[in-house]
Amino acid sequence: MVHNAHFRYVQAAACVKDWLCQDWEAGEERPGAGPQADQIKMGNSMRKLFDSLFGNREMRVVMLGLDAAGKTTILYKLHIGEILSTVPTIGFNVEKVQYKNVLFTVWDVGGQEKLRPLWRHYFNNTDGLIYVVDSQDRERVTKAASEFKAIVDDPLMRHSAVLVFANKQDMRGALSAAEVCEALGMSQLKGRKWHVQSAVAIRGEGLYEGLDWLASTLKSMQRSGQITNVQAAGR
């Protein structure tokens, strides 16, 4: 199943409209998605628990990285549990992902060079950053690092939790998570909440471990008052 650029814009516009005007019920079938019965049941249960604990609120997360890093694969693996054949994202995808009592609105923004200057337009009111690195692409790791530094140094992102997926760990010659950590200069993020997670997006490996860290970290930050820009769902 191939998602072309036009489909993405239509899908994103529909999701944004629903985000602003009404809640999607967890597990409700959307156009182009066909969750299994057990996923529907789990989604409904998680939604009820989330509502009771957090008053129907959601966290805003932006997912960035160079082109072909695996961002869209990760988004749809988390969203519908499937790997879709994709083409390079021109613009953005946006989906809601519910996990561990936290409802994420995840913005997957295209990573092509001509689109990177537009990344900053997605920073406002962002609670968490997911940065995806193609661990096999050693030739561009320096570029990935420089783009990452520009993001985390931006005033709008200085209080966001940072999750890095060191993706494509199954590929020969891939940098390890520790090497990606060093390449991005993670130790320089003083006073920041961050985590680097090994991942193989096409198999779903490492994705939920990373999201588990992000969910627990954002909840902790919310309780301590470090997050004050949480959006009320459906507003």
From TrEMBL:
GO molecular function: GTP binding; GTPase activity; metal ion binding
Residues that hold GTP according to the record: 65-72, 111, 167-170
GO-annotated biological processes: vesicle-mediated transport
Keywords: ER-Golgi transport, GTP-binding, Lipoprotein, Magnesium, Metal-binding, Myristate, Nucleotide-binding, Transport
InterPro entries from the UniProt entry: P-loop_NTPase, Small_GTP-bd, Small_GTPase_ARF, Small_GTPase_ARF/SAR
Protein residues bound to Mg(2+): 72, 89
SMART domains the record matches: ARF, SAR
Family assignment from sequence similarity: Belongs to the small GTPase superfamily. Arf family.
Name of this protein: ADP-ribosylation factor
Species name: Elliptochloris bilobata
